[in-house]
Amino acid sequence: MKTHLAATLKDAPTAVRRAMIEDAPNLAPGAAHVMGRFWTAVRAGKRNSSMPGAEAYRAAAASESTFRCLLRALAAYAPHVSTAPARLVSDEWYALRRKPDATVVSKANKPVGTTWPIAWQRMKPELDATSIRNTTRNRYIASVDRCATVVAEGLASDVFGFVLACELSDAFLFHPDKDRRVKPVTAANYIEGLIALGARGGVAEESLTAMRVILRDLRDQAALAEKNKYERISELIERGGYGHVADKIRKLRERAHDLPAHSAARRRCMQQAVVCAVIVNKPPRKSDLVSWRFGEHMVREIDGTWRAEWEQAKTGGATETGAIWPEVCEILDEWILDGRPDRLVNVRYQDLVGRNWLTLGDTEPYRNLPSELTRAAIGVPSHDLRTLAADYMRRHDPAHAADVIATHLGHGTRQAGGAYRAECEGAAAQAIWQKARMAIAAQSASSTGKRQKRSRVATS
Fold first, then answer.
1. Same domain (yes/no): 402, 391
2. Would you say residue 313 lies in a domain?
């Protein structure tokens, strides 16, 4: 068997070939052959083996199931390989899928759990035997059904752990079919059901703990979504304001690094991180954000400095960011690389010139995408970050904040920022009155001291 595998994988890198031969008993059906064809295509195309091009994936897999098998094999036996170009091929396969028939087949004809991945099916008897209410068990099973559907679509793996929870969360919140997107609270319930299956089925506690991180994030998003604007801003400030946003950006980047380069969930994590970072630097309106294009509105200079300049759709006025903060520039570089090696950043930017900065393609996203991304990341719509910026400035220098806010947020007239201006003027008046009160108090104390001294002199 080892000789056969060695021949099949003759063009694969030595380390990859050795790893697969050593794990021969556990290889998925077809994994060796699709990997063999893949590495033969890479060698024939004389491409860099650290990031093979999309054509190698197309040559190796004649069906979507074979393509997904290839991606799983690469993740297991060649984790050093950047699979970023596979994203394009994945989108191609998804576009070729047949639309579901209008007639819906009754699920009553199918035994419960038969559509689940095999590993999940083996855990079901343990869930059935658990001493819980039937309503709870049925809810868990329905939730696992929803998760299994996402896995069957190729939008998530079937291995319990952090990656699975990330991919499920992304698929539920941002499914390619908009009609199938759900709210964070619903996504949390689905993943909770799957965690319950894993807990009864003997899945390692570390894997379940990692999945609960995503579950808590979804619960937090749901809790914030129920509040009104001022409650949301207040809670965001209590959590640390921009410090909390920065911490979330860091966690999203770390999460992205743990996901495969071709993963839709990885791109979504970085999309959330980069939108939050750009808004923190200077908060544009979402209608402007979705329209920016590389080389026209978002420009990367040769030294790695990014700048943004645009005409505001609402006011018609021109505005700019100036040199974007270095930390945000680093995140922008990471975003455009999309899982590729750092050395390719200049080449990648040139490839993207003229394309939309949020989709990395020719199409412009829908207007509400920035708010959906910030909600998923920190639980509030993008406009709340504009309000938070104004609040920071008002607290820092209330006497001058109104004009600074008008410039920073791109208000076309004094009336446009009337609410902010009124708050600033009120805060400035409070500050002035507080100083006056301190002066009055000081004078009062001095006057009282003099009266007490005169009183002592008179009595003596």
1. no
2. yes
Is the torsion defined by CA of 333, 338, 339, 343 positive or negative? negative
Measured distance CA(382)–CA(375) in Å, rounded: 7
Residues 286 and 357 in one domain: yes
Q: Tally the domains of the chain.
A: 4
* Secondary element (H or E) of residue 322: strand 318-323
339 Cβ contact partners less than 8 Å away, ≥ 6 residues apart: 82, 83, 84, 87, 260, 261, 262, 266
Measure the CA–CA gap between 334 and 336, rounded to whole angstroms. Answer: 6
User: For residue 453, is it within any domain?
Assistant: yes
Going by C-beta distance under 8 Å and a sequence separation of 6 or more, which residues neighbour residue 280? 242, 245, 246, 249, 328, 385
Rounded to a whole number of angstroms, the distance between the first and last alpha carbons of the chain is: 116
Q: Do you know the residue count of the chain? A: 460
Q: Which domain holds residue 213?
A: 112-226
- Reading the block at residue 425, the tokens are 């003027």
Residues 350 and 451 in one domain: no
| Strand 318-323 relative to strand 306-311, pairing | antiparallel
Residue 183 lies in a domain: yes
Sequential pLDDT tens for the chain (460 residues): 678 899 999 999 999 999 999 999 989 899 999 999 999 999 998 778 899 999 999 999 999 999 999 998 998 899 999 999 999 999 898 888 765 544 444 444 567 888 899 999 999 999 999 889 999 999 999 999 999 999 988 888 889 999 999 999 999 999 988 889 999 999 999 999 999 999 999 999 999 999 999 999 999 888 877 777 778 888 888 888 888 999 999 999 999 999 989 988 999 999 999 999 999 888 888 889 999 999 999 999 999 999 999 998 777 888 888 899 999 999 999 999 999 999 999 999 999 999 999 999 999 999 999 999 999 898 888 888 887 877 666 665 554 444 544 554 544 444 444 444 444 444 444 443 344 445 545 554 554 454 454 444 444 4
- How many Cα neighbours within 13 Å face the side chain of 114? 6
Residue 92 near residue 63 (C-beta atoms within 8 A) = no
